[in-house]
Amino acid sequence: MGTLINTATVIAGGTLGLFLGHRLPERVQETVMHGLGLVTLVIGAQLALETKNILILLGSLLLGGILGEWWGIEGRLENLGRRLERRLAKKGTTSDEGNIPLSRGFVMASLLFCVGPMTILGSMQDGLTGDFSLLATKSLLDGFASLALASTLGVGVPLAALTVFTYQGALTLLATCLGGFLTDPMIGEISAAGGVLVMGLGLVLLEIRRLRVANYLPALLIAPLAVALLTMMGVSF
Hints:
Blueprint: H1 2-20, H2 26-48, H3 54-71, H4 73-91, H5 100-114, H6 117-129, H7 133-153, H8 156-159, H9 161-178, H10 184-205, H11 219-232
Helix pairs in contact: 1-7, 1-9, 2-7, 2-10, 3-11, 4-5, 5-7, 6-7, 6-9, 6-10, 10-11
């Protein structure tokens, strides 16, 4: 359901952007973004409170953050976007100019909507628990972003809904399959770690602090492993 909502908002926002252009005032866009940031903080706090052991949450985030910084996850994602954008720009000097806006808008919008921690967290939450509230919040963000992008990058932006549907749908199905191997305490700690990351995204949306949230993504793997290890040692949850 979350992926379907997200796909629909990208199509709707992109289509409106093609017709409305830059008519939406900047102050209105800023107010909407800040409102979404506040709601994102609330969602993140609710998820974070699902932890049954604050030490697991703390350890997962600290170790995950160290690994993320070591691997440079956020930087790699940003570099991926830059490389694709540069390649499109180079191709634009030799390829048919009529196709450039569509391909450029499609790739840039696909990256914006699919490369990020909220995509992974939302899809996992939807697949594991059936709660698509995080993806619904992301859908509103993507809807306004697609409206703004489509006004300058053209019809390729709403077409990026195909990427959203395929990528997020696959992540949700994968999480659904993994649900059979994960215990309730594992899912709870995954949700709690993800909630802290979501709160970080909320701070970014509110322009309070620019956090490298993607570098904490390894915490989503460390949290269930920690629960499994402690369970083997006889710790009950």
